[in-house]
Amino acid sequence: MGTEGGSWLRLRRHLAAPIDGASLVAFRVAFGLAMAANVLRYEAQGWVDELYVAPELAFPFLEGVERLPGPAMHGVFAVVLASALGIASGLAHRLFTAVFLVAFTYLELVDRTTYLNHYYLVSLLAALMLVMPLGRTGTLRKRRIGTLPRWCLWTLRMQLGLVYVFAGLAKLRGDWLLRAEPLHTWLSRYAHAPLVGPVMDDPWLAYAFSWAGLFFDLFVVFFLLRPRTRPLAYAAVVVFHAVTALLFPIGIFPWLMIVATPLFFEPGWPRRLWRGEAPQTVEQRTPLPLAALALLGVWFAVQLALPLRQHLHPGNACWHEQGYRFAWNVMVMEKTGMLELRVLDAEGRETRLAARELLSPLQQRMVPTQPDLVRELARQVRARFEAEGHPAPVEVRADAWASLNGRPSQRLIDPNVDLAHAGRPPAGWILPLAEATRR
Amino acid sequence: MRVALVTMMMVLGCGDGPSFDVPALNANAAALVEASYEEAAAEVDALATAAADFCTAPTAPGHDALVTRLEATRVAFKHAEVFAFGPYTDSPWRVGPDLDLWPVEPDRVDAFLGGDEPLTDGEALERVGGKLKGLPALEYLVHGSDVSRPFVNGDEAAVAFQEDARRCDYLRVAIENLDARLDDLRAAWSLEGDRYALELSAPGSTDREIYDDAFEVGSALFEQMVFTIENVQQLKLGKPLGLRTQGRPEPDSAEARFSERSALYARETLAGARQLYDGAPDSELGIGDWIASRSETLDAQIVAAFDAAAEAIEDLEGESLEARVETEPEVVRLAYDRLRTLRRLLAVDAAGLVAVTVTFNPTDGD
Fold first, then answer.
1. Quick one: which of A40, A23, A145, A131 has its CA closest to A85?
2. B18/A45 CB distance under 8 A
3. Of A232, A379, B119, B176, which residue is the least packed, with the fewest Cβ within 10 Å?
């Protein structure tokens, strides 16, 4: 016991030890500016109105998390913008980070159809930054960059590492490895492009990208951690994310990773840019509190469990999408769908509703392929019909078809099940994927 | 590094040319738009002549000729319905509501017919809403006795036109207005006019910035084709069938209830979409060639589904759709279901295969 206690103590002292805060400060500033730029991009593109104001229906993650009226939604984005700039400034760090975390996460929770893996990552990083003393140094008020505790750096490194490794594990699928899908389909989009067109449509390129992407995701963290391989690994990070940014509409994600992965360099790397003097680090005798260590342990246990939970559900998670979100399933599927609802009132009268009558353009793409969203839509339609005075109970059945990674379309949902009264997935109403592929 | 470079060059060397020429598809579509509206313009001219002849001396044979010309005109517009985007729907042109805003509201047309607004030329209809002009209003003028029924025969129609000279005036100015608005539409597409055709054939060459590249144009054409088929399924058949109203048929919502040609126009709309799918018979590319470049099996399935849907709609044409939804709903339902099958093959199978609807979140992706 004594030896174990000593190991833990050494670990806690090691984690609490001060290190050069330069790379953490650089990350904080880059993160804040990137998030601010993201808000400006949303407003410039008209996405706030298109995604958060115009749709008649919403699909919140949590009951009670509802959209606000249009001007208030713009107000939330303004809050995200201001707090992101506040994070970059380093002033009132905990206040700005808390406000950012709440406002940004609200935008994520308010509609499942806008879910993005990297916005989930943004919320996680913001939550971690909230508990870190990142406002202690390198701020607009205290410009001289001093030290920060080592656990901050390693916590962020671990979080980023988990994203890469799980994104790699998610690619250990037959479609990715043996059919080079969905990359072959996506790359063929550039088949007509000048010069590179003929290559982009070649299956071998898709295979090369698929396997290279797999190895990159699985092993890049390992190579980033080793000083000898770090420069080459970071060059690979830049090339990989720049290529994906060039080819696919994935917004800020590549740039976020490019500015975040320098955290794997030695903590004082930014000083090379201005030849600054490193702060003095003294030996730390005060260990990281046990409760803090325990909290970090719980955090990472959850971070390990969430992506793994998809494996509790039999079948292809890309098809049934149970446990699919919050699991770093990045770029592993191209799924199209078609949905028509059959609404039957208590007197057996049937009304058919097409997806386009109910949903916004983005929702029309997202809802038909995601069983839990189809069920949610069915419940909202039932509520609407009953509120309009149609004889209850109103039943809602789904004529839902989907195609995954180029397979022939097949029914996604049992058309005989009343989804308005069906239980949450996993439930028998999601039909299994037939693995046949098209020739 | 050298090994990596050689490997990359070998990979690059494997390319044997793009399997499908999307820019050529887009250019053909632009040409098809022009040809479709040219055909429609010729039909409008012929319709104007038939209307003038009939109004000079209203007779039953003259009415028959007018009916024939009106049908041909509507068929031409139905063929072009798959191109109802761009200048058809968008500002500053937004021509569509003036051409073909259906179903007609006969009581409003009757009220205008019974009014005293001067009907001198097509300009007279410039300031009135789409419900009082365009093809549906013309159809009501030619076919409709009153809000409840069509003319029994050509004689009754001839008498109605003889007794009410304003009916002929309305007919004439409505055709003139149709002609003028169609000219506006053609000018918007024309290379001598607003050059909207370049958005398809040379994306990025104008300052409108509608499509970034040829693939986006191809995707838009694909989606427009599927949208048109969905309109046939949902609006032209499903709505009259009562599928939106607890199974209670809505014959008044049919596209052409006074001429009893709703099924014909549904089939011709589908034929327009099919034209975009097939391309020209010999060499010009259609969307079907795009699909076939990925899967000939799927292309064959889609062609068969097009045929089956057209056949099912054709089976509705013996009797009016408005009657069929009441007396033989299962026959209409069959056509509806076949259109749904066609739509599924296109919107789910084909769209995923050629990646026209890459399901990245359009804001940012994955």
1. A40
2. no
3. A232
Q: How far is B8 from chain A (nearest CA, A)?
A: 9
Nearest CA in chain B to A190: B215
Same domain? A392 vs A278: no
Among A161-170, A208-217, A354-363, name the one with the lowest average pLDDT: A354-363
Peptide bond into A426 cis (omega under 30): yes
Q: Which residue of B has its CA nearest to A41?
A: B363
> Is the CB of residue A403 less than 8 Å away from at least one CB of chain B?
yes
Which residues of B are less than 8 Å from A409 in CB distance?
A: 344-345, 348-349
CB contact under 8 A, B355 and A188: yes
The answer to whether the bond into B103 is cis (omega within 30° of 0) is: yes
A47 at B interface, C-beta within 8 A? yes
- Residue A283 clears pLDDT 80, i.e. is over it: no
Interface of A with B in 305-344 (CB under 8 A): 330-331, 333-338, 340
Assess whether pLDDT exceeds 70 at residue B13: no
* A:182-221 residues touching chain B, CB 8 A cutoff: 185-186, 188-193, 197-202, 204-205, 208
Check whether residue A293 and residue A413 sit in a common domain: no
The verdict on a CB contact (< 8 Å) between B230 and A356 is yes
Class for domain B39-194, per CATH?
mainly alpha
For residue B282, name the pLDDT band (cuts at 50, 70, 90). low
Burial B11-35 (b: 16+ CB within 10 A, else e): beeebeebebbbbbbbbbbbebbee
**What's chain B's length in residues?**
366
Smallest CA–CA separation between A93 and chain B, in Å? 28
Asked if the C-beta of A52 comes within 8 angstroms of chain B's C-beta atoms, the answer is: no
In angstroms, what separates the C-alpha of B116 from chain A's closest C-alpha? 40
- A394 and A304 both lie in a single domain: no
Q: Helices B262-278 & B22-56, crossing angle to 10 degrees?
A: 150
Residues of A in contact with B246 (CB under 8 A): 345, 349-351, 390
What's the pLDDT tens digit per position in A139-169?
999 989 999 999 999 999 999 999 999 999 9
A200: which chain B residues are within 8 Å (Cβ-Cβ)? 15
- Are A30 and A160 found together in one domain? yes
Give the pTM. 0.90
Domain with CATH 1.20.1420.20 in chain B: 3-24+199-353, 39-194
Q: Could you tell me the CA-to-CA distances from A239 to A194, A196, A232, A355 in Å, in that order? A: 21, 17, 10, 40
**Interface confidence (ipTM) of the complex:** 0.87
CB contact under 8 A, B295 and A438: yes
Reported as a pLDDT band with limits 50, 70 and 90, residue B5 is very low
Same structural domain, A252 and A348: no
Question: Class assignment of domain B3-24+199-353?
Answer: mainly alpha
